[in-house]
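Appendix B: complex inputs.
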Amino acid sequence: EAQVTQNPRYLITVTGKKLTVTCSQNMNHEYMSWYRQDPGLGLRQIYYSMNVEVTDKGDVPEGYKVSRKEKRNFPLILESPSPNQTSLYFCASSPEGQGLWGYTFGSGTRLTVV
Amino acid sequence: AQSVTQLDSHVSVSEGTPVLLRCNYSSSYSPSLFWYVQHPNKGLQLLLKYTSAATLVKGINGFEAEFKKSETSFHLTKPSAHMSDAAEYFCVVSDGSGGYNKLIFGAGTRLAVHP
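Resulting structure:
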């Protein structure tokens, strides 16, 4: 089944403890992106990647890192999480960056930083 | 810069009555427009998309949307609501200004369907 898989689904952590949220797609998509969803704000883009080893900042990149060493994986790294990063995170992929085919989203990771 | 405004944060309808979720956009380019649906504790699912072909777009589950360039609108409709339609709906515009098409999301409309 074609899908985007995120792990974990739920995570509670403490301020300052490094964490990684994994994202993997099995559709050979070139484009991948991370979004955070907060009430009343819709989804905002954190980082995106047009292809392997090509990443760039979205609208809200502060406090996050990403890497794209393989086409299928696009992990999101929080080096020193803070409570304002408590949010619902989505990974998405698309065959290309033009978005003409829509995007496939993962099921989400709900992160709580205390 | 492109933007999306969903005019209602909450919409409540009775089962069997029509649904109208309103979306206005601003765009300097020929936009691609999407509607996504998010059911509770689920990811986002593509309902339908407009990419400069027919202005009336049909999607899944009986939803459709009409692209009106003169009104810069892309409202989502369904003739008869079903209980399973209760969810949050996002209008999305695809922004090609940066050399790739970034998705810009509206704030969402929560649809409640009552028996």
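Chain A touches chain B through 26 residues (CB under 8 Å).
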